[in-house]
Amino acid sequence: xxxxxHNFSAGPAVLPLEVIEELQQALPNYNNIGxxxxxxxxxxxxxxxxxxxxxxxxxxxxxxPDDYEVxxxxxxxxxxxxxxxxxxxxxxxxxxxxxxxxxxxKAIKEANRCSIAKSVWAxxxxxxxxxxxxxxIGSTEGATYLHYTSNNTIYGTQxxxxxxxxxxxxxxxxxxxxxxxxxxxxxxxxxxxxxxxxGPSGVTAVILSPWxxxxxxxxxxxxxxxxxSMLNYKLMVDKNSMFNTPNTFGIFALDRMLAWLERQGxxxxxxxxxxxxxxxxxxxxxxxxxxxPHADTDSRSLMNITWKIHxxxxxxxxxxxxxxxxxKGLKGHRSVGGLRASIYNACPLxxxxxxxxxxxxxxxxxx
Length: 367
Ligand SMILES: Cc1ncc(COP(=O)(O)O)c(C=O)c1O
Hints:
By secondary structure, the protein is α/β, with parallel strands linked by helices. The protein is built from ten helices and 14 strands.
């Protein structure tokens, strides 16, 4: 194929072509230093400049308070499911969890390996069509924090407001970080795998409040033998995310993604674009009962739009035709079925418009 297809993959996901071209250029000879990006020491001044730039851009774009720390780790959000509980809870402490789908369920499972994870909200059935209102969340008494998944990539639901709690919030922002303003100061800790809005897989951004760092120091003393070095937030802060060799390529890519986001006007500007992109698809889904959107209206995600076709037999035809029209990655997650369009920051409006016009024509032909 000579041109790039419209990419609706849930992650790893589409990156801006200009970012890919910057990466391409840096590979053989980074910044004319005679060494390729992936061939230079993570202890070099050049790499130090890259990681500092990436952290500083993230701080500015997300308006992270000065006394918070930013880590760029490995192991994905899946490791953070365990690492958050391991560092923030003693062995007998409880974390409260809002269970809005597959990823929250996994977070609960991992946290229960080292401490106690209590679900304080789950939907009546397993359909995960919505996130709760604050007054529906059960008692968090005795818990150390309240964990939530900001955007549910698989089900296409999203918290449209930060949940309210007296406890420090722990947020899994893997699939919506930097897509809309976040009130970071309300959070004890935020984590996000990079592979949706921040670049390639293999880097995980972790934003820690002073409270989270203090907890990590305290809990280090409570865990038998102390926290494992690679899973110790305080140690990672002290070592500037370089206790061991970091993902140098991924961190450079993240820096370039953030520079691209700055050129788009930053988080508020991209949020406006994201609202418009999502609206164009939801308008089609709401336009007739040919389509069956999955998420309840007030829980709809701006990042992952999930739906079915009333006549389920048409879904495979939809996917085949979409594929033939260079619209890729639209198959719903296997646990939900149906269709899903992931339209992260880097998914251009043209791709959304191409999908919308394909959907209109599909409905005309098969409706
Ligand atoms: C919301 C959310 N949390 C966690 C994960 C797991 O991320 P990782 O594969 O980086 O461990 C994903 C992956 O898609 C996700 O969407």
